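Researcher: Good morning. I'm working through a list of sequences from a screen, and I'd like to move beyond sequence-only analysis. For each chain I'm collecting a predicted structure so we can compare shapes side by side. This is the next one on the list. No need for commentary yet; just the structure.
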Amino acid sequence: MYVNPFALRSKFLQLSSEKQMKYYQKSIDKFIQLLDDKDIDENAQIEGKLFETLLTKSEQKKYFESISAPIKPVNTAAGYYAEIKKQENDDNPTAWKLLSADEKKKYTNLLRDAKDDYNSQIKHFSENLPERLKVEYLSFVKHPRTTAHVNGSNNENSSPAPISQRRKSVQPIPENFQALIDDAQQKLNRAQLDALHKCKPDVLYYEKKNSDDDRLTFINTTAKNTYIRTIFNQLSEKKKHKFVLKSTRKWEEFLQSHPTIIENQIPTLHLLLAKNDYAHYYFTSLGLPERPPATALLLFNYERQEADSQQNWTDLSQSTKDEFIKRLSKIKRDYHQHFLEFVEKTLPSDYVRLEFFRHIKHAAKDYETAIKDRVDEKDDGQLKITQYLVKKQIIELTPMSEFDRIKQKLLNTDLTHEQRKLVRRLGIIMNKNISS
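Model: Good morning. Structure tokens for this chain:
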């Protein structure tokens, strides 16, 4: 027989305080047993706000008060003064304003002492609680230990930035890709977001690990997602990477089934992979070459660590330092060549290239440097600045320059959004035809 939960709630609230407290305690006992049975860790308890699925904030307050939890002092010295005066049967509301600065300071100091005492009481009270309940109590009173206890110094378990902050790329895009970016960036609809969510690595892991019968019930989607993310963060890097690759394969299938996302260049990879480290691993799996050290000193330090040497850079002769500089120059040239091949040949489309530049630090900078350092197939392989300048002058005299001038003139006129998009695409096509 179906029973309306709101009717049950109403009946419960009609019980006496003593009976309500009795069921609070039964509920908490079952909650602690569930945490132990399912081996749910403290991070998931707090980040998923699991205790709030059990008792509301006001019910938590009533429960902790019933077991003699410390009473929090008021926030302001004025409020503290008013409490003292009420105990003295003096309810004059304007009395605080009549006090001198020195008299007010006295109550400010008293309040500070009361807060210090409250924090000491919290520590003592929490030590006498069951371990599972202690975590929830410290979270409830927002004790400083809670934040440090959950997040600590390990970024592995810290929550990623909100999606609203991660939506826009924090990495620059090369100039020749700017035309692909739509000024009025479109977003995914709810159905597309739901489909993409199923491709996430933590979701894939959770669904593989837990059958339908073993999955927990959550009060809302936020609590569920937080719990899933927390258990995924506890995996080894090797296992995480395994599911990152599974996730990106699902993502590629998702893009094939939603061609309008690619056509409109709507970014999606940041919604799939919560950390840029995961995106870097994905592109590395496709063949992204390892970035060389920025300086000869860093190259020397890297090799010194590999050889477990105690020698310092300052101990080297100038000729040896010059050798490191020459070697690094060659390493960078090789890197730029492989980097260009990766971007222009390995990455399958302009859409994936845009996602690449959005997520990989220094990618745009390295790409533009590699373009400048590109060597003609007919060249002997030695880059000369004079050849680069001559080549640049020739390019400036080509029909592409005239087309760019006309394109810019068109874009400065009163075009519709669709017309602007077409002009930009024509520029890309023109550029490809001339360079081929």
